[in-house]
Amino acid sequence: MAEYIEGKRPIIEALRAGMPLKSVLMADNVQQDGQIRDILRKARQHGVKVKPVSRKVLDDMSERGSHQGVMAETLPFPYVNTTEIIADANKRAEERGGALVVVLDHLTDAGNLGAIARSAEIVGASGLVIPNKRSARVTAATYKSSAGAINHIKISQVANLASTLERLKKEGFWVAGASEHAQHTVWEAPLYGKIALVMGNEAEGLSRLTMEECDFLTKLPQEGKVGSLNVAQAATAIMYEWMRQCAVKAAQ
């Protein structure tokens, strides 16, 4: 099923980030302002076809009614094999003393996937692992929430998370599961070295089978009354704690 990006600024950002696009659909009566000219220029630079269509066609295709006279059809995301992510992680561990792989246990929101990918790329994670069924996948919403970072981090789809976690253990990773039911906070957990960080579903958290594969569970410290952070916010905070602990170990 084709995925579409709506609006001038999102399409400019997608082109700037190198998002793979099949074509740009542009209303034949759209005003040729600076942003439209920028889209035409960037599309030409990246070899993306621009197809003139009637505004009614865009109106019918639009999900949010915010196309501003232009939409872009995306190409399928280039997922990688988990072996590639592990190889990158092992190389990073040799060079820097630590490596991070983020495993997402059936997240359902593509925007959360993008936000986590953005944070993972910033802290230097080697990649993300997601299930190939009943899980969010990379869509236009993911590109938008990742702010282009999705183009710079590897993502693997797997059939079985449990077996993937077992494989990561054999490769020398400690599997840390994020759970509000954990006894110890991230300040107490050994989040340094080669870590596979497992984040759970937005509503239900970690599944029982996934939790059983974790070497330990950890949670964020809390002073307020709200039950927990959004999964993307929580993942970001834990990833930065991994980054901090690795830096402390390297300095010792």
UniProtKB/TrEMBL annotation:
GO annotation, biological process: methylation; RNA processing
Top-level taxonomic group: Bacteria
Keyword Methyltransferase part of the UniProt annotation: yes
One Pfam family it belongs to: SpoU_sub_bind
Every RNA 2-O ribose methyltransferase substrate binding domain range: 4-80
Presence of the UniProt keyword Transferase in the record: yes
Single GO term (MF): RNA binding
GO cellular component: cytosol
InterPro entries, A to Z: Alpha/beta_knot_MTases, Ribosomal_eL30-like_sf, rRNA_MeTrfase_TrmH, SpoU_MeTrfase, SpoU_subst-bd, tRNA_m1G_MTases_N
Keywords, ordered alphabetically: Methyltransferase, Transferase
Family: Belongs to the class IV-like SAM-binding methyltransferase superfamily. RNA methyltransferase TrmH family.
Protein name per the record: 23S rRNA (Guanosine(2251)-2'-O)-methyltransferase RlmB
Organism: Slackia equolifaciens
